[in-house]
Amino acid sequence: MTGTLTCAAIQMRSGTGIADNRDTFEGLVREAAAMGAAYVQTPEMTGLIQKNRAALLEAIFAEEDDPIVATAASLASELGIWLHVGSTPIDRGDGKVANRAFLFGPGGRKLVSYDKIHMFDVDLDNGESWRESAIYEPGDRAITIDIEGARLGLAICYDVRFPDIFRRQALSGAEILTVPAAFTRQTGEAHWHILLRARAIENGAFVIAAAQGGPHADGRETYGHSLVIDPWGRILAEKDDDEPGVIVADLDIGAVIEARQKIPNLRNIRPFNLVDVS
């Protein structure tokens, strides 16, 4: 594709109340559309951030009843935009939760959903410990989809540390890679910009990453700094703090072709064998 796509990344500070988060989500999506965005992305866990398992299961809904899903469909239709809910927790009905992203088309129809593949099961040196796999059921399929003549790849947060997803999406033609996230402050300060710029550079693709930011009601703190990055690794737009808000950038999709011509690493891939000589 050649041409320009105006995109927005929404930064939020989602709390433990879905109704309040929905209202904030709606207001920021309307703001992004008023700024001219044709594609709008929200962060991971748009609808709810709640680390207590029992409270989470009590608060969430099945997909067909979820208020974030319903509101997103309505907004996409009313505003005539591509609306990408970076993720929201969905009750699977089997005691587990899906960390699920949704993409709605300008007519308000759900086009695709994506369940986060990689679970954040880590112990950080500041004492934080996370076991997403205790609550969430991982997905098993990567997704690409065409919007406005450009191909979009879907991922969520911790997926950014697994480059194969993005490489396979790029090899299938994806020009825009997405990483909506709720990065912890510690890991964000260390790795957020580096990882996202690396995914853009190594695939010659745009990267859009809407983020959660600031202290949340459940006790966690996220990094913020939502980003839009071009295929050469340059930052086109950044929400340079952890406050809620909107950033907008124009994506010249032709820049993907230029970057991949200058550094044709996607064409230069060769098979190889790993030999252990220890």
Task: List the main descriptive attributes of the protein structure presented here.
16 strands; Nitrilase/N-carbamoyl-D-aminoacid amidohydrolase; 278 residues; 28% strand; 6-stranded mixed beta sheet; globular; alpha/beta
Task: Please tell me about this protein's structure.
The chain is of the alpha/beta class and 278 residues long. The protein contains six helices and 16 strands. The chain has helices at 18-34, 53-59, 67-79, 163-171, 185-203, 254-262; strands at residues 4-11, 39-41, 82-91, 97-104, 110-115, 121-123, 129-131, 143-147, 150-154, 176-178, 206-209, 213-215, 221-223, 227-229, 235-238, 245-252. α4 links the parallel β9 (150-154) and β10.
Q: For this structure, what is the CATH homologous superfamily?
A: Carbon-nitrogen hydrolase
Global shape: globular
Strand content: 25-35%
Number of folding domains? Answer: 1
The structure class reads alpha/beta
Number of strands: 16
